[in-house]
């Protein structure tokens, strides 16, 4: 079946479709890194809570911004772990030896995500903490102002840098920059890409608003993305194309 595909020069390709189906049709040992932010299926300890509209689960306070619908964020714990193992296995097959993997997750889904990463064959190497100073305070409780990246490699690490990289990255969410309910700061992705090969091909099977791809354009990596939502596929392609043009004018 033909799928809508957006190509930006020879530096970025964004395919619209279901990640698992699309990845299964792509060649093995063809990407240099996997950096991705899947739907967490988080936001509650019960199935009903997890199946709530993401706009309700993930937005708090009185001012709620409106974004296109976020898809696929409704799995229970066991099906999330099984599903994550399936797509992470495809990512492992597509990765070259030594490729790093970075997968976003939150405190609820951290155990499932580390299980799935390892079950898929990746060698778990640690966590990166994304500290969000803008997170809301919680009366009488510890503030939940961190999300995590599960860091792993395919077989043996092939370091892309001789720098020592920090384990905690501090970036506020900038509402003016966000086009997606759970969009991540571009500056955070730029910092994360320091672990990937300059000029290498970075895979993000859950592209969303295209943040990983934009950071790739800004830092001289190539990008291969997949996104289920036709609306976000279009938005991501436009944003990545703009980031590519910006990078060219900076040269
Ligand atoms: C957490 S968001 C990614 C946000 C992105 N990092 C950003 O900064 O904009 C996850 C994305 O995965 C997409 N998605 C959900 N299920 C999918 C699937 N089966 N295949 C591909 N994309 C999927 C959702 O539509 C959503 O845009």
From TrEMBL:
It comes from the Bacteria. Residues 31-237 form the DNA methylase N-4/N-6 domain. Its EC number is 2.1.1.-. Pfam families: N6_N4_Mtase. PROSITE patterns: N6_MTASE. Keywords: Methyltransferase, Transferase. Belongs to the N(4)/N(6)-methyltransferase family. This is Methyltransferase. It comes from Nitratidesulfovibrio oxamicus.
